[in-house]
């Protein structure tokens, strides 16, 4: 792959900071309350959810242009869950929710979502590694 852009960020644990090389991200990190933390700070799952949702929405725009579909009123929400896996460690799962307007209901919307999932770089990176459920709302 010929890289068109490389993002660089540094973190020092779940209760430290995450900082991007350009300074656009400089966030305190913390465990969520559900995992025993105080909830003061973001966490890797939130960052992954935001990145995946943004990438998926952008990918949907690219796919929609090829299909001559209007996705200007679409919003995408990624729900990233962390839990114990069968190996005694932790794993992730994702529910990708797409709010589609009426003109994209039914088979047209389902096909758009599946083509987007095949096209999206985050989906490609996670394929076969974590379960991703596609939901139309």
TrEMBL record:
One Pfam family, short name: OsmC
Family: Belongs to the OsmC/Ohr family.
Annotated GO biological process: response to oxidative stress
Name of this protein: Ohr subfamily peroxiredoxin
SUPFAM superfamilies recorded: OsmC-like
Source organism (scientific name): Streptomyces candidus
UniProt cross-references to InterPro entries, sorted A to Z: KH_dom-like_a/b (IPR015946), OHR (IPR019953), OsmC/Ohr_fam (IPR003718), OsmC/Ohrsf (IPR036102)
Gene3D superfamilies: 2.20.25.10, 3.30.300.20
Coiled-coil spans in chain: none
């Amino acid at each position: 792959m010929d890289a068109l852009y490389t993002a660089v960020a540094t973190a020092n644990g779940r209760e430290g900071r995450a900082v991007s090389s350009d300074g656009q991200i400089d966030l305190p990190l913390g465990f969520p309350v559900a995992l025993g933390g105080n909830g003061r700070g973001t966490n890797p799952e939130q960052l992954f959810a935001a990145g995946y949702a943004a990438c998926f929405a952008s990918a949907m725009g690219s796919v929609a242009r090829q299909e001559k579909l209007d996705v200007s009123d679409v919003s995408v929400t990624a729900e990233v869950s962390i839990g114990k896996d069968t190996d005694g460690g932790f794993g992730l799962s994702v529910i990708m929710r797409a709010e589609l307007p009426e003109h994209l209901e039914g088979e047209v919307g389902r096909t758009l979502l599946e083509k987007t999932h095949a096209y999206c770089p985050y989906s490609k990176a996670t394929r076969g590694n974590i379960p991703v459920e596609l939901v139309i709302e």
